[in-house]
Amino acid sequence: MVYGALDIGGTKIAGALVDAEGRVVARAQRPTPARESAQSMMAAVNSVVDELAARPEWGALSCLGIGSAGPVDTFAGTVSPVNIPSWRSFPLVERVRNHPAVAGGVEPVLVGDAVAMAAAEHWVGAAKGAANALCMVVSTGVGAGLILGGSLHAGTTGNAGHIGHITVDQNGPVCPCGARGCVERYASGTAIAAHALKAGWVPPDGLPATAREVGISAQEGDPRALAAFDRAGRALAAAIAATAALVELDLVVVGGGVSQAGDVLFGPLRHHLGSFAVLDFTRDLPVVPAGLALDAGLIGAAAVGGAASGLFRAGAGGLTVT
Ligand SMILES: [Zn+2]
Questions:
Q1: Which of 106, 109, 201, 322 has its CB 3.0 to 4.6 Å from that of 196, i.e. a possible disulfide?
Q2: Which domains does the chain possess?
Q3: Distance from the CA of 262 to the center of ligand 1, in angstroms?
Q4: pLDDT surpasses 90 at 312
Q5: 251 closest CA partner among 141, 167, 125
Q6: From the record, what ranges are coiled-coil (predicted)?
Q7: Ligand 1 mean position, distance from CA 181 (Å)
């Protein structure tokens, strides 16, 4: 039995076959033709499926999960990734289902990429065994997925856990989403770099002004870079404390490119969490780095496909979709 997985991102379309222990046994990848037509995009997806279908393991395919850059609508089976303009309410689930290599009994299941990563962390990563966890992706944007009562909580349209657009400052800057003071305006990689630059930080010679370089400067003690990470950690802490108060968390997992900065992010985040999460049931909430790196999106898509197909029920992997 193998689980099929597709991971649709702004730079690459990846696919994999994953075994029952969460290990990738086959993979395929194409660059995302993000600026091309909807048909070109789908041709790239089909090409990934073709390559996987040529593998002998494909014959044992029991389910197929799809994680995609958002927004997604899992109920409608459509995707509208911000970075892929030709796909707006694109019926991805129907198109994948209609691929000739996808057997009639295999119903593709769609979730947002952050929700998929939460599923992966819960299956084989840092949130394994956790009953109530918030799994965050701090990268170009800020996303998350929720594990509640031992199950992935995706929400009706698959967007539950959208922590990047929780307001942490009512009078804060306007966010592209239309609201004000969203977490992303402080804690995304883009926001961290912008804040450091505004404070006078200059990237090392010839390097781009990204959060990665700000992280390196912060590790070297640059006060402007440290301030940008402190600001990011504070915003994340406020949002985590709010989430903990709402749903009573046992664990927070933080992954994504910005989390690679390590202690310069986790230090301020934990420090500020101490001043925001002050109720008895929110205090001392563990915040740990993600356990999975590059394949989290694929493993999570496989997990969601398996969960939706009932393969994980009865406690086999502890993961069910609610
Ligand atoms: Zn927003």
A1: 201
A2: 2-112 (3.30.420.40), 126-289 (3.30.420.40)
A3: 25
A4: no
A5: 125
A6: none
A7: 7
